[in-house]
Each structure stands twice: as structure tokens, then as C-alpha cells.
Amino acid sequence: MSPLLRQHRYALGVTLRRLFAQPFSSLANLIVVTLALAIPLLVASALTSLQPVSGRLAAEPEMTVFMRVDATPAETGAVADRIRRDYRSDVVDVRVIDRDKALADLKANPAYADALSVLSDNPLPDAIVVTLSGEDLARRAGRLAAAWREWAKVDMVQVDSAWVQRLEAIVRFARTGLIMLAVVVAAAVLAAVFNTVRMQALSQREEIGVARLVGATESFVRRPFLYLGAISCGVAALAAIGLVRLALDPLNAALADLARSYGAEFAIRLPAAPWLGLFVVAVALLGACSARWSVSRSTRF
């Protein structure tokens, strides 16, 4: 075995002995870091699970222009042609839904057939469905709706997919919040590991001094502390994954009832294994960097 590998094995053994020599202190630090990591991991899991749902929703909002009941097919066609001609840069598609066809489709549905069979006249208006394109859809949809409402024979303009825009805004807000939360958690982990390593270094001041007298290098002295930071944070990251996995069962049970009330299915799941592996490695590296910073400042004696 090469001298470098023997030094790393020795440093790892020293680190494990120090951890087990102070079980309560090590466990307390592990719990603090685990809870700090579990919160952003749970939020990231929710966003990852929500992404496919939002991806299946129509990204381009549809606006429905409802004509007055007394509007003729020619007047409805004129409004549709005007939208195609004057707003060609704003729309992708314009289609007309005839009032008679809409009534026939409703009567074909058994849930509405009995109620509609007693009607003597067709109460439904003609409708024009407009699909928008481009950027800043929410603002532009409001501007277009306000303009079209002023046209003759137009009764109402409805932005059918405005809720999609709200959902996308919520997801963007949550991503920004997650980034800020991750920064705060990273700072908390740095502080926890920094303080733990500092206390370890100060408690072993005499041992470090003797090691230097017999020729120990700075790398040899600091290596066990780097392992301490990396192992503590790596184990805490694994514990955070396990904690979130346990928390998902009651959360998904509650979400299932809520989703069923809207006729949908939704469940929060942990990210894929490669992402979780990267999460553990990144947290372990963060702990090692914090330990390196701490030991560099705490062993200058």
C-alpha cells in the first residue's frame, strides 16, 4: 500500500474514532444538518413532481369570444376574419364553434340530454376560439380581451387558460424561493460544520502541536478534519433523503384526496437516483470545504 493511501486510511480511522468518542455531540450535529437539508429536498421533490403536470398543460392560452345570441353566422365569421387579419402576429389559430353544433354535442352527453331536451330554442351563442402565441401571454391576453369586448355583436371574452399562466407563475416563484432557501441552508451547513471542526481542533490543540513537533505536515494534520466534514454532511444528506421519503407517505395520502376532488391524480416523488447521488456528493463536498476553511483558521498555533 502506498504511503498516501496509508495516510488517508489513518485519517479516516481517526475521524471515525472521534465521531464515536462523542456520540451525543455527533448525533446532535447530524440531526441539525439533516433537518436543514430535508426542507429544500422536500420542496425540490414537489417541484420535480409538478413539472410533468405543468408540462402537459397547454402553454398557449386559448381565448373564447362569445357572440350575442342574436348574432348571425355572417357576423360571427366577420369577427373571426377580423381577428385573423388584424392580429395575425398574436394568434396561432382561430376557429368558429357553431351554436347548433355546440348544442348537439351537449345533447350527445347523457348528463345534459334530459335537461336540454325540454328547451324549445337554442340558448347557446356562437363562439370563436383563439389560440395565442409569443411571449408575455398573460398581459397580452388581457389587452386583447379588452379590445375585442368593444366590437359589435361580441357579448363576452373569456381567457380559458389564465389559470395555466397562474400555475406557471407559481412554479417560477417556487423555483426562485427554492434557490434562496438552498443558499440559506448551505450557509447553515457551513456554519454548523465550521463550528464543529473548530471545536474539535481546539480540543486537540496539544495533540496537533505534538504532531507538528515530530514532523507532521499541514496536510496530515488537517486531513482528518476534512473527512469529518465530508462524512458528517454525507451521512446527513442520506438521512435527509430517508426522512423525506418517510414524510412523503402521509403527504401523498392527503394530496390524493385533494387531487381526486378535482378529478386528477398527483403525488410527490423523490427525484431520480442520479440527482440524489449528486445531492449527496455536493453536500459532502460542501462539508469538506467548510471543514477546510475552519481548520485553516483554527490550527494556527
From TrEMBL:
Ranges where the ABC3 transporter permease C-terminal domain occurs: 179-290
UniProt-listed Pfam families? FtsX, FtsX_ECD
Q: Which residues form the FtsX extracellular domain?
A: 62-157
Q: Enumerate the subcellular locations listed in this protein's record, separating them with semicolons.
A: Cell inner membrane; Cell membrane
Domain of life the protein comes from: Bacteria
Transmembrane stretches in the record are 27-47, 177-197, 225-248, 275-295
Keyword Cell cycle assigned to the entry: answer is: yes
User: Mind listing the UniProt keywords for this protein, alphabetically?
Assistant: Cell cycle, Cell division, Cell inner membrane, Cell membrane, Membrane, Transmembrane, Transmembrane helix
Quote the Gene3D superfamilies the UniProt record gives. Answer: 3.30.70.3040
In terms of one coarse class, where is the protein primarily found? membrane
Give the InterPro entries listed for this entry: ABC3_permease_C, FtsX, FtsX_ECD
Q: Topology with regard to the membrane? A: Multi-pass membrane protein
Q: Which family does it belong to?
A: Belongs to the ABC-4 integral membrane protein family. FtsX subfamily.
Role noted for this protein? Part of the ABC transporter FtsEX involved in cellular division.
Q: What is this protein called?
A: Cell division protein FtsX
Which species is this UniProt entry from?
Pigmentiphaga soli
Taxonomic lineage is: Bacteria, Pseudomonadati, Pseudomonadota, Betaproteobacteria, Burkholderiales
